[in-house]
Structures are given as structure tokens and as C-alpha cells.
Amino acid sequence: MGSDVDLAMFCAHLAQQRVMHRVFEEQGRQIVEVSNEADAQRVRTEYEAWRDGRLALQWLPRPARARTPWLTLLRRYPAVTALIALSLLCFPATFGLDAGSLGPLLPWLTIVPVVGSEGDLRFGSLSGALMSGEVWRLVTPIFIHFGIAHLLFNAAVVLEFGRRIERGAGSICLLVLTLLIAVPGNVAQFVMKPAPLFGGLSGVAYGLFAYVVVRGRLDPAPAWQVHPSFSLGVVILLVLMSSGVTELFGVYIANTVHWVGLAVGAIAAAVWRPTRPGSADAV
Questions:
Q1: CATH says 70-275 is which class?
Q2: Cα 187–189–191 angle (5° rounding)?
Q3: Does the annotation count 145 as an active-site position?
Q4: Distance from first CA to last CA of the chain, Å, rounded?
Q5: What is the pLDDT of residues 211-220, one digit of tens each?
Q6: 49 falls in which pLDDT band (50, 70, 90)?
Q7: Which of these CATH numbers, 1.10.10, 3.30.70, 3.40.50, 3.40.1130, describes 1-66?
């Protein structure tokens, strides 16, 4: 659709017909994105009818927007919901650190077993933990967060890019990507700096971001498109964090997981691009 077409009345009509959609501009054209092929065909037909006068539209009072039930969100994005819910459930694990205590939960989430108190920490080996069957430790550091800002920022990024992947490629794809990103990222971080007290969803967030960006280069569907300025800003932020500037303010960041996540997400998008039946389409 040309950028000179005022779609306000047409969008109001779609809203009245309960057709979920969003409008954005790309390369001088207006794109209407809908959730499935049936709605896409309906929008095409009604748009053509409206433009040639066969469909007369008029302004009507907009109905009150119904709140989406949590159960509906859970059904639509179960994998994203599970990742964020686990992060929330594990968030109290770090509360004891301010008092110099590991607490009862944190030692079970770190990449290797940890005992002791602040200033006198002792931790086991990664090989020993795996030989003991504690394979969950390869993943669980992603659910450790050191403060509410850390948790909320990571959850917001995972929500944004995770829902795109889950909507466009399916829940299994998102869960597999999470594991592919988390395991090598956590191991690489521990190998580069053998200290077990690191964690967060940020490595996964960078990986999901990279997957969406690279896939957007190979797949024209609107769900995979990310504005270039946003992508550039994310990469610049990562470079700044890796420069050590945050350490001047007493903030130590596990940047290895970020770089590994970025690389794994990009490679995964290049070699594996499943499509969920009924995923988002555009007209």
C-alpha cells in the first residue's frame, strides 16, 4: 500500500471486525501485518473493495479494548512465558548475597557447586558436577539475576524477540535456541573466568536478537524485521560493556556469554529456519 493512503478508517474497520493487525512503513510502503493467512486474504479483499468503492466505511465509536487474559498469552507464547516465569521464581536465590550468604537455592543454580560465604567461597569443578549428574547446571545460570533492574531488562528483551521467534517458528524452536545459546555461553564464561557467580538471561537475549536480525536478512516476513538503528545500538552497547568501562563504576558484566549468544543466534538463523503453520503474514 502506498505511503500516501490514509489507513485510519480501514484500520478502525478491521478493529471492529476483531481482526488483529498492526501497520508499519517499510521502503516507502505501508504494511498491514496480520496473524494468519485467512485474515491476510480477508484484508486484501476488503482493502481492494474499499479502494474501488464497493465497501463503504464510516467512523463508529471504537469498542473498548478487551484485556487479553493471561491464559490466552500462555497458550500463545508458552515457551516465552516459561522462561520469564522461571526467572521470576529463581530471582530470590540471590537475596542472601547482600548479607554475605549464598542462601539455600543459589548453590543449585550456579554452573558448579558453591559453598562458603562472601570472601571465603569454594567451588567444585565443572567436570565433577557433570560426572555427578548435575547437568542442569549448564543451563540454570540463565535464571540467576542480581537485582530487579537486571531481571526486568533481560525479561523485556527476551519477551520482545522470544515472542517473535515463537510466533514465527514455534515454541520448540525457541526452546532449542535457548539451550543452544545457554549451554556454550555458560561454559565459555566459566572457562574464561572461573568464577561461578554469574548469570542472567542477557546471553539468551543477545542470541535471540541475533537470530531475529539474521533471519530478517533471509526471510522478508515482517515478524523478522528489526530497525537497523536498533541493531546498531545493541551492538554498540555490547562493545562498550566489553571495553571494561562498567567496571569503573563497580559493575562487572559476564560479556563472554553475550558474545557467544550473539554468535550462536546468528549461526542458527543461517542454518535453521523453521516456520510455524499459520505464522504472521503481511499484505
A1: mainly alpha
A2: 70
A3: no
A4: 8
A5: 999 999 998 8
A6: confident
A7: 3.30.70
- pLDDT for 188 equals 95
DSSP result, the chain: -BTTS--HHHHHHHHHTT--EEEEEETTEEEEEESSHHHHHHHHHHHHHHHTTSS-----PPPPPPPPPHHHHHHH-HHHHHHHHHHHHHGGGGGGGGGT--TTTHHHHSSS-EEEETTEEEE--HHHHHHTT-GGGGTGGGG--SSHHHHHHHHHHHHHHHHHHHHHH-HHHHHHHHHHHHHHHHHHHHHHS--S----THHHHHHHHHHHHHHHHH---GGG---HHHHHHHHHHHHHHHTTGGGGGT----HHHHHHHHHHHHHHHHH-----TT--EE-
Sorted by where each begins, the domain ranges of the chain are: 1-66, 70-275
Stretch 181-195: mean pLDDT: 91
Task: Give the active site residue among 13, 87, 258, 279.
Answer: 258
- Mean pLDDT for 74-79 is 88
pLDDT at 125 over 70: yes
Task: Give the pLDDT band (50/70/90) at residue 75.
Answer: confident
Residue 279's pLDDT is 58
Catalytic residue among 35, 87, 171, 202: 202
For this structure, is 202 an active site residue? yes
| Whole-number average pLDDT of the chain | 85
Amino acid at 282: A
Rounded Cα gap, residues 10 and 59, in angstroms: 10
Q: Does the pTM of the predicted model rise above 0.85? A: no
